[in-house]
Input
Amino acid sequence: MALKDTIQTLLSQVSDIQANNAEELEALRIKYLSKKGEITALFNEFRTVPNEQKRELGQLLNQLRQETEGRINELREQFEAKQAEADKPDLTRTPDPIALGTRHPLSLVREEIEDIFSRIGFTIAQGPEVEDDKHVYGMLNFAPEHPARDMQDTFFIEKEKGVQKPTDVLLRSHTSSVQTRVMTSQKPPIRVLCPGRVYRNEAISARAHCFFHQVEGLYIDKNVSFADLREALLYFSKEMFGPETKIRLRPSYFPFTEPSAEMDISCNICGGKGCSFCKGTGWVEILGCGMVDPNVLEACGIDSKEYSGYAFGMGVERITNLKYRVKDLRLFSENDVRFLRQFESC
Ligand code: DAH
Output
């Protein structure tokens, strides 16, 4: 009767079979039902029992195997259901953040300049990069023999292949060309900011490049004075470089402005005390400016007796250099991610 007891004991324990995970469950299956399992061993023992007990014990043994299999299958289904639930995508989870790239430093600075001037009423104007002599030089009061027109400075575009002599078509060498485009197409009051790329025939080095970026400003109205220019530039400098910033205007010459000036700001690196950046002077030059020459107004069809205006032009690379201390101009166009990644995206 030992076999019957064993079977009954096991039968009474079937519902207690527990497993914490699928691995434990598989271990139990092996323990009871595999070729070397306990229940299989009982079947082997069963062969030796007397015939008159075979019917009763056989039934008990089959019941034990079925119930054990049933319990193990039941637990397996529970684990599978749990796993299926865990595998379901969680639709309430916030998505992974999208990895943002960074903004190019020249774009950051150009947009900051645009932002500052837009707060005092300037709107953006654009003009073509492939220009003609008239808009880049002629209407801006450059004398016919002015050296800027020299092929050393300006990229001319050959109309016919192999034609070497300068043509009328060129890559603009400054954004002042957009002034002439705006003045010939709009009536005063005009208050525009003209950002854009310009080209000059320079050997590429840390300090010069064959293309760079400028922002031009132009304001034409009745009674515009040099004091208005000075105030606008002081406001810009403080917004861009901090409220402590001072400006200094030095007389200069440009064909398209009269009087003309170059503007320095107090060195934002040493605060004006003098350092290697400002060569000990405490000042750094950032732009050219002046009152629009009456000849330019007239060339663009604006009555210079009724209207006056100011203009200014600055290099975006120069301002970026001051803000971020980028010493080598070539870095701006090399697309080296180690350089570009240092600038914030926003
Ligand atoms: N066009 C000048 C340059 O490329 C910069 C400039 C100077 C622009 C004075 C102006 C200005 O509008 O008034 O060097």
The longest helix spans residues 51-87. DSSP finds eleven helices and nine strands in the chain. The first strand starts at residue 123 and ends at 124. The beta strands are 123-124, 130-132, 169-171, 190-199, 211-221, 247-254, 257-266, 283-292, 308-315.
